[in-house]
Design brief:
By secondary structure, the chain is of the alpha/beta class. About 40% of the residues lie in helices and about 15% in strands.
């Protein structure tokens, strides 16, 4: 995928060669293209660490830990020295330092942060992963580095935070930014971007259910929101090209104790460093 640096409201594009190869494989076999799509769907892209994240990377205490439940290794970042801790969870193809601007603000407020490179992301080994690995990593990090006062997640990290709370992550408040919501919507969008027929999306979900067990829709963020009692702040950009704003609105509608902040023209990633967004997070945490 190519990274657009000039317009934060343009989606990341899938290279034409991948779209063409997907269509060719679909012409040959529905089964083969489902396998191919599942491989693409579970393979993140490791981007070079941008300059703004270098300070957090250098100042963090880092260690590689094993997550026994999935037998995967993840690189953990401990940033700051306070006993009051905030857990930060990056999104797909992100890194443990991606929420660096938010991390700096948390330290200014008297917290320390713990973040991690999810399996197959950043410095963590592997080539493929899926949200269940993100959730398992959070649960294990909570055991080893918690307890946490607050959990903040971006994109897939937002879905991860919601699902981890459902599975027992005990925090006082949560913030989710640009979070996905309904799993079927996410696979539908992915399959549409590949130029494939909608039926492949259902086959893709079925394949994941057979492999990992459970029902994929049970990981939809709004379902976790229904069971979340703690104060939760949902932040989403109206012009997010990768996760439509309806996802954030829908999650907020299902929260019992939720706040919603909608931004404009920040897209999917610029939102993480926006001054007003960080100020909103600060006010939410402090009140």
């Amino acid at each position: 995928m190519t990274k657009n640096t000039t317009n934060h409201t343009k989606p990341l594009k899938i290279p034409k060669i991948i779209i063409l190869s997907s269509k060719f494989i679909a012409f040959l076999s529905t089964k083969w293209v489902t396998i191919y799509a599942s491989k693409l769907f579970t393979t993140p892209i490791k981007h070079k660490v941008p300059k703004r994240e270098i300070e957090m990377d250098q100042k963090s205490v880092q260690q590689m830990i094993i997550v026994p439940s999935i037998n995967r290794k993840v690189n953990v970042y401990e940033y700051g020295k306070s006993n009051k801790k905030v857990l930060l969870v990056h999104g797909w193809s992100g890194r443990g330092t991606q929420l660096c601007k938010i991390a700096d603000e948390m330290i200014r407020l008297g917290y320390s942060t713990v973040s991690f490179d999810a399996p197959a992301h950043g410095k963590s080994p592997g080539n493929s992963t899926i949200m269940v690995d993100f959730i398992a990593s959070v649960i294990e990090i909570d055991k080893q580095f918690g307890p946490f006062e607050i959990a903040i997640g971006h994109s897939l990290g937002g879905m991860t935070v919601m699902n981890a709370i459902k599975e027992g992550l005990n925090v006082k408040k949560a913030v989710i930014i640009g979070s996905g919501d309904i799993v079927q919507d996410i696979t539908d969008d992915f399959i549409a971007k590949l130029g494939l027929k909608p039926e492949i999306s259902k086959l893709l979900c079925k394949r994941f259910e057979n492999k990992y067990g459970g029902i994929m829709d049970d990981y939809s963020a709004y379902k976790a929101a229904e069971k979340t009692l703690i104060p939760t702040l949902v932040i989403h950009d109206e012009n997010d090209p990768e996760v439509p704003v309806k996802a954030g609105i829908h999650i907020h509608q299902h929260l019992k104790n939720g706040e919603l902040m909608l931004t404009k023209r920040l897209g999917h990633r610029k939102i993480l460093a926006d001054h007003q967004v960080i100020e909103k997070i600060t006010n939410f945490i402090e009140k």
